[in-house]
Design brief:
The protein is α+β, with helices and mostly antiparallel strands. The chain has one domain: Quinohemoprotein amine dehydrogenase alpha subunit, domain 2 (Lipocalin). Helices cover 20% and strands 59% of the residues. The chain is built from one helix and eight strands, in the order αββββββββ. The longest helix is centred in the N-terminal third of the chain and has 25 residues. The relative contact order is 0.17.
Length: 123
């Protein structure tokens, strides 16, 4: 009888664990991120990401100086984030790891250039 009771609680415990991890990840990237890294010509670049997560889909904008660009495609699975942006005719793909309020990323563009950037959540 005791074993049956324990087994009866198992689906509920699994559901609660799944629900709590879904709620946690839903808030993982939504917000503003102050970021810095190296541009295609190895120049220092400062930018702001304004992201919104809905399930595994990520949307938002990237602002560099006075210029704002849409995230054309974004996704998150676990703590792995991928963002695609078109900037002045160049197609950039960033692959990142999100840990707490920090992002560590690498990027590549269609021209074969690569670089790294990092960000910190501001809200």
């Amino acid at each position: 009888m005791k074993n049956n009771l324990r087994l009866a609680w198992l689906p509920l415990a699994f559901f609660l664990l799944l629900a709590s991890s879904t709620l946690w990840s839903a808030d993982l990237v939504t917000g503003k991120w102050n970021c810095s890294g190296k541009g295609p010509d190895d120049e220092d670049v400062q930018f702001v990401l304004d992201l919104k997560q809905s399930g595994e889909k990520v949307t938002g904008t990237l602002t560099v100086g006075d210029d704002t660009y849409d995230i054309s495609d974004g996704s998150i699975q676990g703590n792995r984030l991928e963002l695609v942006t078109d900037i002045k005719g160049n197609h950039y793909v960033s692959t990142a790891i999100v840990e707490s309020h920090k992002i560590t990323a690498s990027w590549k563009n269609d021209g074969g250039q690569t670089g790294h950037w990092e960000g910190e959540k501001t809200n």
